[in-house]
Amino acid sequence: MCKLSSISETLKFLILLGYYYFEAFILFICPPCKKNVAGEIVLITGAANGIGRQIALNFARLGATLVFWDIDEEGNKETIKLAKENGAKGVYAYRCDCSNREEVYRVADQVRKEVGDVNILVNDAGIANVKTFLDLPDADMEKTIRVNIMAQFWTCKAFLPAMIACNRGHLVSISSGTGLIGANKLTDYSASKFAIIGFLESLAFELQAAGKKGIKTTIVCPSFVNTELSRGIHVSRPLLLPILDVEYAGRKIVDAIREEKFYVFMPLTNCISALKNFVPKKVLFLAVEYAGIFNNLDGVRDRKRRDQNHPAPKMSDTS
Ligand SMILES: NC(=O)c1ccc[n+]([C@@H]2O[C@H](COP(=O)([O-])OP(=O)(O)OC[C@H]3O[C@@H](n4cnc5c(N)ncnc54)[C@H](O)[C@@H]3O)[C@@H](O)[C@H]2O)c1
User: Fold this and answer.
1) One matching Pfam family, short form (predicted)?
2) Closest residue to atom 43 of ligand 1, CA basis
3) Is 24 part of a structural domain of the chain?
4) Which of 107, 112, 210, 268 has its CA 20 to 30 A from that of 298?
């Protein structure tokens, strides 16, 4: 009996496998309509600069209600101004240090009261230290982990319950090419970006297992994008690993969210890193050296991170 059910399950699996490949092929040839996001509440962390700002401007053009979270209040103001110029009607900005759990939960409550339940959550805020492992101060490594991954736990915990209640919503995380393969001078950063993939992929499976198929997830893995975070980076193989324009990156990410893609590799050559699981070690190291991953951060000098430029306000400043 048990053997029979196992055979029928395997048969069902094989039929569905073929069907889903066929479906993916058809969708590749005739892509489905992108989803309409007009009127949706979209919260973007790290919206004050770089990729987050460009994601915001693309959603602004599509009529979404926007909520910006960042530690950089001046940057938030500039993104509000630009979003309005790009057609946004409802725009709200909050100073929130996403690495601070209590602050995330407090500001999330404020958003629910003042704006409503978030439909699309884009976890973009991130920092990078760019130092060799032994040169990295312990506190800086902890900060990277708190901003780049712990923050995503807190924001998802804050906004997922409302999505689950109506079986509708979208969680988006900006990981990185270094979430797929390690990189010289990025031990803490790469670890945090690998963690994002493990986190959101697991959450996606958990939601599927619970029957919450209406909640989508998208993991974005860009290589290099010309923002403050990547200033000083030198690429030796631009065809393989180009520095992408930030406006292009923002547009592609919003398109992928509207197409409800599970993974977004930018550029597509990022997928090549999956081959690391199949090649001999010496081939892997040779390929990594050829791609420039051993030295493309050599030009990055010690710089002040954005969060050091924008320390939390003192209690007397918060009114
Ligand atoms: N630029 C690249 O080459 C590149 C490549 C791959 C992935 N990424 C990822 O894309 C995301 C955006 O990076 P970017 O290039 O636009 O960098 P950026 O420095 O231009 O923007 C990052 C934003 O995050 C904000 N931020 C930092 N710490 C925060 C905190 N504790 N709480 C709230 N906001 C905080 C900053 O103020 C800033 O506005 C990051 O997660 C980054 O790791 C960037």
Assistant:
1) adh_short
2) 126
3) no
4) 268
Query: pLDDT digit string (tens) for 143-197?
Result: 999 999 999 999 999 999 999 999 999 999 999 999 999 999 999 999 999 999 9
The yes-or-no answer on residue 189 being catalytic is: yes
Query: Domains in the chain: how many in total?
Result: 1
Count other Cβ atoms within 10 Å, centred on residue 18.
10
Task: Please tell me which residue in 92, 94, 189, 290 is annotated as part of the active site.
Answer: 189
Tell me the residue range of the domain where 66 lies. 36-311
Nearest CA to ligand 1 atom 6: 176
75 touches ligand 1 (CB under 6 Å): yes
Is ligand 1 within 6 A of the CB of residue 307?
yes
Ligand 1 atom 31: residue of nearest CA: 97
Residue 260 lies in a domain: yes
Alpha carbon of 127 to ligand 1 centroid (Å): 5
Instruction: Check which CATH number belongs to the domain holding 60 and give it.
Output: 3.40.50.720
176 lines ligand 1 (CB under 6 A): yes
pTM above 0.90, yes or no: yes
